[in-house]
Amino acid sequence: MITVKPFSALRPVPEYVKECAALPYDVMSSAEARREVAGKPYSFLHIDKAEIDLDPSVDLYADEVYAKAAENLADFENKGVYQQDTERKFYFYRQVMDGRAQTGIVGCAAIDDYLRGEIKKHELTRADKEADRIRHVDTCSAQTGPIFLAYRESQTLDKIIADETLKTPLYDFISDDGIRHTVWKSSSTETDEKIETAFRALDALYIADGHHRAASAVKTGLKRRTENPNHDGSEEYNYFLSVIFPANSLKILDYNRLLYDLNGLSDEAFLRAVEKNLGTTEEYTGAGAYRPTKTHEIGLFIGGKWHSVNFHERICNAEKASERLDCAILQNAFLSPVLGITDPRTDKRIDFVGGIRGLEYLEKNCKAGMAAIAMYPTSLTELISVADAGEIMPPKSTWFEPKLRSGIFIHKI
């Protein structure tokens, strides 16, 4: 049984929503964020990456960074850029990218469901990244970035989303990257109750993106429980801000690889090693880049030429769901034994390139003595299988687009 609650959102007034809405804090550097906010005094990056309003010499994790974030949030509210809704409601958030729409329900999921494993994860988190967001949430006393969740199947929720999004939206704007964002508020208390009931009928939710934000929200909630002698479970810190999508509406993009050296192999020896260890290799003579068309196939760019590689069947039948993923097969059958890349999280000889950049990016950045690998995207079915098995996906397995914007909804705790 899953608990998701409506909440009183702190959100921008309509005339400021386009300026406020910002990409998540962790998809850009401080320098990129400084450039992004030029001419945008109310960009949410002033809160999510408050170091941009301080001298560049200030450490990213200094006390004054978190204090500045809280100060900016209060300032935005005092100036009327943000206003708090007076009633608890669910919201609906649609994004349209390249003609494809995904619409999720905005509400607050329970940290106890996360702790029980009913909100399922598939990634490891880093303590330093958690610590940063814990301090940010705790200092601001607000959750500022929604967790991207998915549910397997609910005709009831799908029907509610379809009906409610026929009504007049609160917001409807196109961000600078061409993505359309539309938001609705639930139309009645009866609708809110139906949503809560429909979530209670589910046995699991799945984190698609935002593992560090989820872990940090949960740990902040646990911290506040210990600090509150009158804790009774109803407090806002017991829930975390989420946008929850039907899994069949989501799209995972390819997450590609650049190899900066070939471990002493010539191009020809590298291709022979691929043929022996990984799969049947064939040079691609068509136009443009080679994009794999199915699971257990990759595109390989080396020596200025593209090749298709179809994995040998013998390496595709691992017992664990996580080890049947293409990225795991590539790692275990080739990157580790042939190139000596045993820890792709830390090895400087490999770089990971989100599919949003396109295969042309791989070609452009693959120099002599390098290789590029175009992956077939991991599917939601594979992600759910790994999460259901309680396993962890290999690093850089999934790239979700479009990214949820921060700053449209804030959950005060």
If you had to describe this structure to a student in words, what would you say it looks like?
- β16 (297-302) and β17 (305-311) form a beta hairpin.
- Helices cover 31% and strands 23% of the residues.
- The strands form 5 sheets. Strands 1, 4, 5, 6, 8, 9, 10, 11 and 12 form a 9-stranded mixed sheet that branches.
- The chain has helices at residues 17-20, 30-36, 45-48, 63-78, 111-115, 127-140, 155-164, 189-200, 211-227, 267-277, 326-335, 359-365, 380-388; strands at residues 4-5, 10-12, 82-84, 91-97, 100-110, 119-120, 142-143, 147-151, 171-174, 180-185, 205-209, 239-246, 252-253, 255-259, 279-283, 297-302, 305-311, 350-354, 371-374, 399-400, 411-412.
- It has 413 residues and is α+β, with helices and mostly antiparallel strands.
- It has 2 domains: 4-251 and 401-412, no CATH class; 255-376, no CATH class.
- The model has no long low-confidence stretch (mean pLDDT 95).
- It contains 13 helices and 21 strands.
Please render the helix and strand layout as text.
Blueprint: E1 4-5, E2 10-12, H1 17-20, H2 30-36, H3 45-48, H4 63-78, E3 82-84, E4 91-97, E5 100-110, H5 111-115, E6 119-120, H6 127-140, E7 142-143, E8 147-151, H7 155-164, E9 171-174, E10 180-185, H8 189-200, E11 205-209, H9 211-227, E12 239-246, E13 252-253, E14 255-259, H10 267-277, E15 279-283, E16 297-302, E17 305-311, H11 326-335, E18 350-354, H12 359-365, E19 371-374, H13 380-388, E20 399-400, E21 411-412
Parallel strand pairs: 6-11, 8-12
Antiparallel strand pairs: 1-5, 2-3, 4-5, 4-10, 5-12, 7-21, 8-11, 9-10, 13-20, 14-18, 14-19, 15-17, 16-17, 16-19
Helix pairs in contact: 4-6, 6-9
